[in-house]
Amino acid sequence: MFQAGDKVLITSCDDDPRAVGKTGTVIDQVPPGPLTQGRWTVTGISWLIAPVLCHTHELRKQ
Hints:
Elements: E1 7-10, E2 23-26, E3 40-43, E4 52-54, E5 59-61
Antiparallel strand pairs: 1-2, 1-5, 2-3, 3-4
């Protein structure tokens, strides 16, 4: 489980494959629900990559 502010490594990402191998920050204050289809919002990846939505299995805490 992740919390807002956690630094994560994106190991895979169906939302944007360019984010794979990069690190970002989880911004969700609560666990993801139906609106995001159970995916976490990760930002701060790169100035070229907008925030992405990733499933728990696609992320690893840094």
